[in-house]
Amino acid sequence: MTNAAIAAIFEHIADLLEFRGENVFRVRAYRNAARTVGSMVESLTSIRADRPLTDLDGIGSDLAARIGELLDTGKLALLDELKASVPAVAFDLMRVPGLGPKKAKVLIEGLNLSSLDDLEQACRDGRVKGLKGFGAKTESAILENIGFAKSPDRDRLLWNDADAIIQELLGWMRACPAVRRIDGAGSWRRGRETVGDLDLLVESDAPTVVMDHLRAWKETTSVLLSGDTKTSIRGPQGVQIDLRVIDAESYGAALQYFTGSKEHNVKLRSRARDRGLSINEYGVHRIPSDDRGGGAADVRHAGIAGRSEADVYAAVGLPWIPPEIREGGAEILLAERNSLPHLVELGEIRGDLHMHTNATDGEDTLGEMVRAAIERGLAYIAVTDHSQRVTMAHGLDRKRLLAQWSEIDRLNDSLAAEGDPPIVVLKGIEVDMLEKGGLDLPDELLEKADWVVASLHYGQNQPRDRITARIIEAIENPNVSVIGHPTGRLINRRQAYEVDIEAVIEAAARSGTFLEINANPWRLDLDDHHAAAAKKAGVKLVISTDAHSTRGLDVMRCGILQARRAGLEAKDVANTQTLAQLKKLMKK
Ligand SMILES: [Zn+2]
Ligand SMILES: [Zn+2]
User: Fold this and answer.
1) ∠ CA(75), CA(80), CA(82), 5° rounding?
2) 313 falls in which pLDDT band (50, 70, 90)?
3) Which of 101-105, 181-185, 311-315 has the lowest mean pLDDT?
4) Ligand 2 centroid distance, CA of 336 (Å)
5) In terms of CB atoms within 10 Å, which end of the chain has fewer, N or C?
6) How confident is the model at residue 484, as a pLDDT?
């Protein structure tokens, strides 16, 4: 069982306990444990093998026992017990953004609801706003967000969680001697924000052996389909995994076909038809001149190309196209003109400009964050803890901020004591945009910072023009370097606030303010479309992890995938530059 799966179960338990009105400390313990486990890179299985789980932050003996039960049996008696005691409709209601367990309980009991449709009707009838703790605003927010809870996408895995599953499975499958080659395909390979089913392709002469090996994986919970060359199973977190065994001569064609997207493949096939060719999952074939129908599509051999993806693209006169931009947009046109972007790569990132320490809501100390950044080969970082308005996170006031900056000065001095420092630490802050407008710390203080991230955490329900004005005001502040997570969305959890993103991009372009691609797998904000629009407007992007622990620095790759899907090159991303170059790009 993966860490992500265990984290999801703990989060679920916390919701259920809260729904039942149980002790807040117990609820919080599960939430904290979910966070700890969810952000760990090393698997709990391997941790347990060499040290007690109680060594982990916030994991006491009770939680350690629950983790043990999950690892040993794949089940948790407590969860089954809790589930049985909570009505099914509660699970649906808690998926409506903004509806926590407490509100869900009031709604269900107060209005006798049994489905999301009941809730929608109750809102339309104006029955919700009469309940204690609810008003007209909440009622209209529920109506607005209910579609989100009903959407079929809500069950898709975050890319990062899908990746954890796929990596573990690849490791298991590679141990099978009959596997000559194996790749993940589908939306995972395209680096989508969320992933539905997982697709694996294997090259092998012994399909039966390969498929037996998949069924024997310890995470396989059920077998959905067993064919001659295809097996489907259900794996961790209920995800469906389809494995296909392919001949070497068709492997590239299959990888191309099952990577998708559908839209990309439709365009590619139509291009092939224009050239008298057909493409399917086996290869590229010449359509006989007397065949006006699609008969050639039934061909089950490689034809004139199929061994590699590059061969398939070459057969229709194109260079290989990176999976992240195979979405049926302009990529085929760009490929044809040989002007595909040289997409930014993880190795090109030199700095990370948004992270937290335990001075606010991070888990690790300044020194630990710096050491972890050095280990990851970064040349510079900005430490950007929260400002005072974020009371929940114990945000920094002037005094504490200045103390942290002195500590950073001393740290930089000691790093430079023996010649070239391995890293430069920038004195930064994530300053809040206040609900009433303006920033949470005075300009004369922000002026002294090396790097200022301005973010909007409060007043997210304000009307569109209010929110847009607050952000543009921050953009126009000469001390603000970048706007953090510009739309505030949390994938599968919370919709973006109402904001005129075009106006934001325009203001950023005008003033030379950067916009962030927040690499946190829940955020990925800006998204690919907005990041592409920002690039087009001449805005430089900054890809930042917003790490709240040393492990959090590893999500940079998720931000890179998002940037690649937006078609960004290294020159579009400010933190691929050296520190000296970055300073020249900054507006002050
Ligand atoms: Zn933030
Ligand atoms: Zn942050």
Assistant:
1) 135
2) very high
3) 101-105
4) 41
5) C
6) 98
Query: What are 40's two structure tokens?
Result: 């760990």
Tokens 């051999």 locate to: 301
From first CA to last CA, the distance across the chain in angstroms is: 49
Q: Residue 460 Cα, ligand 1 centroid: separation in angstroms? A: 13
- Whether 398 is covered by a domain: the verdict is yes
Query: In sequence order, what DSSP letters do the residues of 87-155 get, joined into one string?
Result: -HHHHHHTTSTT--HHHHHHHHHHHT--SHHHHHHHHHTT-STTSTT--HHHHHHHHHHHHHHH-GGGG
Residue 76, pLDDT above cutoff 80: yes
Dihedral class, residue 328 (left if φ above 0, else alpha if ψ from -120 to 50, else beta): left
Spatial distance between the Cα atoms of 85 and 289, rounded to a whole number of angstroms: 67
Q: What is the CATH number of the domain that holds 298?
A: 3.30.210.10
Q: Which domain holds residue 371?
A: 346-585
* Cβ neighbours around 262 below 10 Å, total: 9
In a shared domain, residues 239 and 109: no
**Residue at token pair 């000559």:** 180
Cα separation, 299 vs 249, whole angstroms: 13
Q: What is the pTM of this model?
A: 0.80
User: Which tokens sit at 162?
Assistant: 């899908």
Higher pLDDT: 466 or 133? It is: 466
Domain shared by 477 and 571, yes or no: yes
Query: Ligand 1: distance of its center to the CA of 484 in Å?
Result: 6
Distance 409 CA to ligand 2 centre (A): 21
Give distance in angstroms: CA of 544 to centre of ligand 2.
9
In the reported structure, the alpha carbon of residue 253 is separated from the centroid of ligand 1 by a whole-number distance in angstroms of 43
Q: List pLDDT tens digits, range 324-371.
A: 999 999 999 999 999 999 999 999 999 999 999 999 989 999 999 999
CATH assignment of the domain containing 242: 3.30.460.10
CA–CA–CA angle 78, 95, 392 (5° rounding): 85
Residue list, CB under 5 A from ion ligand 1? 455
Ligand 1 mean position, distance from CA 455 (Å): 6
DSSP 8-state secondary structure symbol assigned to residue 582: H
- The average pLDDT across 69-74 equals 90
